[in-house]
Description:
By secondary structure, this protein is an alpha+beta fold. It is built from 26 helices and seven strands. The protein is 74% helix and 6% strand. Strands 2-3-1-6-7 form a five-stranded mixed β-sheet, sandwiched between helices. Strands 4-5 form a two-stranded antiparallel ribbon. It starts with a helix and ends in a 5-residue tail after the last strand.
Amino acid sequence: MFRALLFVNLLAFSLAVTAEQLRNLEAELPNAESLLQTEPGRLYSNLTAIKGELEQFDTYSQHHFWALYCKAAGQIELHDEVIDIVKHQLAESNGHLNAEHKVALLNCRAGAKQALGKLQQSKLDFNLAYEYAVSANSVAGQIKSLLGVGELHAYQMNFRQAKKDLMHAYKLTQQGDFPLLQHQVNQALGMLYGYKQEYDKAAEIFAQNKQHNLDNGFIQQASVSAFNLGVVYSKLKKWGQAEKYLLESKALAEQAGDIAGIAYAELRIVPTLIAAKKYQQAAVALELAENFFEQQSNQSKLAEINLYHAQLLMAQNIEDNVIRYLNKAYQIYVDIGLIDQQSAVLSNLVKVHRQLGNFDIALDYHEKFHAITLTIEKNKNESATKQMQTEFEHLIREGENKQLKKLLAAEQAKVKNQEDSMFWQVALLGVLFVLLTLVTMFVYRTLRHRREVKSLAMTDSLTGVPNRRSIMKRLKKSIAWAIRYDSPLTVAIFDIDELSQINALYGYDAGDDVLHDFAQQLQENIRLTDEFGRLSGEEFMLIMPNTTSDQSRVLLNRILPAIRSLELTVKGKRVIVTASAGVAEFDIKTETLMGLFKRTEAALNTAKLTGKDRFYVDGKDS
């Protein structure tokens, strides 16, 4: 009797301990859904840490664990691991998986396959998950599957089917209390209109969804809607509106404690800030986003950040490091196997190297771009072939063997012909690119030579300022402008005092130094709207648009002391440079160019005769 009681007590104690352990382990999972949205990397680490203790969970908890684990792994882009885990769980469950977890695993694998570009396989998984959900009468499972396949159809530009799937999902959300799923379906409908470039409809849906979520206290969901509004207005290039909504998204994410939402808003606002030339703010946003996505090991976002770094530098005309950031983005896409993105980055590298004149390097990158383009087309054709094979095999099993095999062979031959045709088309494009590069090089060098010749023809070689031909041409334009718009115009002619004496005493090299330094000093002291050039010898002309002769005195009183401040040392002796100037205002009603020129010359002679190192205004005391 005693032994029986002892055995019962020990058994009860053992069961109590086991129950306590199960309760404690399951207590680590209640906040998993929240972490999945905000910190998937942290959730993945926590789940990995307890993976070896799964035998302490009951069967339901184990299945729930793997569903969460796959979702977290998918969020941080471990797509191959997700596919392997789901395959293993479906094979090892021995029919013990309930419909909820089976649907979750299949939807998770479908998302991973979509991310890896295996779109047909992804669609099959979504449809299979939907069938399981229908058989189990799981409305939530049906909504999630329809949502996934609808988004996939939208991505494939199959808009009619996408709308049909999403509207079906929306109607199902009305059958019960599914506020989060309803939010996700609304977001997907908005994204559908975005894919169709019907941005006004997309903005309307996102705005309504945001207000609905705010009214019901769904702060995190409202943040997502504001984020999508920012994306839509970015597409419309309405940068002010885009920045407003992205900042609102960030603020709502902060209020909800959604760290991921903050990072995504910081990242998406970067092109908006670049467009607004807020380069410092863009750099800060990039740094914050980069810190988060590095912690999450989100490689595709890190690649996107490198692309934004390159875009930011290019917007500021800073060529350094642009190619380095593009190469980093390209290597990340190579490592994670995203071929479409590799193609886009290679295209940018070709453009940048061509702009920098690195035509040989641009050609190398174009060859890589050419090879990847062929691979993409080949993958598309293989995917189409596999899809047709699957469909035909299904019909073959129903008894239509011979005819369907003929059709399959014909389709395969058609695909092969398309591949051959695509190969030659791409090869032709490669040849055209080489020819275009050569023509571009020739045109670029020709235009540069012409610009250099034109610049030499219009520039004084000694002083670096416009020569007589150029400055007189500019005077004609200024006179035409003054006449047309009835605006004042004043001209000054400068003459360097005693230049001939400097040449005689110190040689023509010293005189050339005086001419050069005089021209540079005067250029530094005139306004941006003024024109200045050398007429001949020691004479220079200054054109002052929108300036009366009285107003010109302020400028002349600044220029002459600046010239006096020039001090040259020649053969151990100090040479002080001064200049005289004649000033005249153009008479719009009666005067010609030569009349203005003669009056200005006469005013210069007066300045010379009355003491030099001064200016004289025609018809007025100076």
